[in-house]
Amino acid sequence: MLSGFRIALVEDDEFMGASLVQRLELEGAEVIWLRQINRAIGALRTPLAPIDAVICDIRLPDGNGEDLFNTLCASAKPPPFLFITGHGGIEQAVRLMHAGASDYVTKPFEIAVFLERLAMLLSTKAQHDLPPVLGVSPAARSVDELALKAAGEDRPVLIRGGPGTGKGLIAKRIHQSSDRRAAPFIMVNLAREPDAGKALFGSGGAFAKVGEGILFLHALSRLPRSAQSTLFKALDREFSGRVIATCGHEMAEIVESGGFRADLFYRLDMIEIPVPPLGDRTEDAVWMMGQLFDGFNTQRATPLRGISRLSEEAVRAHHWSGGGRELRSRLLRGVETATGEFLQPIDLFPERIAEGDRILTLAEARETAERLQIIEALEHTGGQIGKAAKLVNVSRTTLWEKMQRLGIEVSSN
Prior knowledge:
Layout: E1 6-10, H1 14-26, E2 30-34, H2 37-45, E3 53-57, E4 59-60, E5 63-64, H3 65-73, E6 81-85, H4 90-99, E7 103-106, H5 111-127, H6 138-151, E8 157-160, H7 167-177, E9 185-189, H8 196-201, H9 206-210, E10 214-218, H10 225-236, E11 242-247, H11 251-256, H12 262-268, E12 271-274, H13 282-297, E13 306-307, H14 309-317, H15 323-337, E14 342-343, H16 345-348, H17 362-380, H18 385-391, H19 396-406
Parallel strand pairs: 1-2, 1-3, 3-6, 6-7, 8-11, 8-12, 9-10, 10-11, 13-14
Antiparallel strand pairs: 4-5
C-alpha cells in the first residue's frame, strides 16, 4: 500500500510512535521517526532523500506541530502534513488546514481509517514518482510540481531563472513526463549559435527535426530580432510541436526596452516556471554536493573518506552566485586537491586563505569561534543537542538559541 514512499513521523510518545512505525513499515514505507521539533526542522529542511509526507502529532515536548509547520512554511512549501490531534486540538488542526496542511485525524483512530487518509494524501505523489531534479528543499519540490503540471498541458512554457539553476533539466523533465516523450527533444542554445536563424529554420534545422516533439530554446534573450519575426510566423504556420524556452530575470527589461518582440514573448510565456537561485536554497547545494561527490572521489588515487560537517556548513553559508556550475567546479577542484581524509571548507573555498590577513572584529571572532565549537560538539555527539550543550557548558535552551542565530541545523542521519 505504501511501498516506495518515505514518510517522516514526528511523535514523542514511545508507544504510539513504535506502533505507527511498525504498521507503516509493514505497509512498505520507509519511516524516519523524529521525537522533537528541533530535530524535525533540520531533517525536513535538508533531508537525505525526499520526504513524501509528514505525520505529526500536534502536541510535542518542545513545542507543537503548528510551530513546526509554520517554521517550514516560512522558507518554502513543506511536504504534505497529516496531523494527529486529540479532540481538544481540533480547532488548531482546522486552522492548520486553512494554512495549507493536507489533513488531520483525531485520537483515538482506527488504523484502517488512518492508512486510508494517508494513502489519499500520497495519491498525487504516486502518479509522479520521479527522482528530484533540482534538490530536496521545499522550493525545489515546488518547481518539480510546476514542471509536472506543465507536462500535463500543451501550451508554451517559459522557465525563468539565473545561470546554473538547472533550467535545462526542468525542460527535460517536462518532456519526459509529457505525452510527447516519444517525439524528439530538440535543443537550440541561442547563446552559442553563430547563426540562430539557420539553426532554427535552415535545411536540417530545429524546425525540420522537431515534428510533434519539444523545441527547447535556451537563452531566449539572445535570439536576434530578425529571427524573432521568423519564429513568430513559424509558430502560426501549423506548428505541431511545443516550445519550451528559458530566460534570465532581465527579460522583462529587454522586452520593455524593445530588444525583444513583446507579442512573441507573451506568446511563449503561457506557462511560467520561476526557478529560485541556489543561494536561496542552500540545502539543495548540500544535496547536490552529495550527489556529485562519489563520482569525483572515485577518480582519486586515494579516495577521501567523505565530506566534513564543516564543509556542509560552509556550503550553506555561501551565496552561490554562479549556481550549480560554480558548485560543480568548486567540488571538482576541491576533491582533486584535498590533502586530508575528509573534504574541508578550505578545499572548496581556497580564496579564504587570501582573506586570512584581515583582522576580524571581536564580534566576528567570537561568532566564528562559537560556530566552529558548536558544530564540533554536535559532530562529537552525533547531533544530540542535549549532550552537545553539556560539552560546551551551556543550557540546552541557550545552545538551541545560538544554533538558530548562527543558522546551524542538525540533519537526521
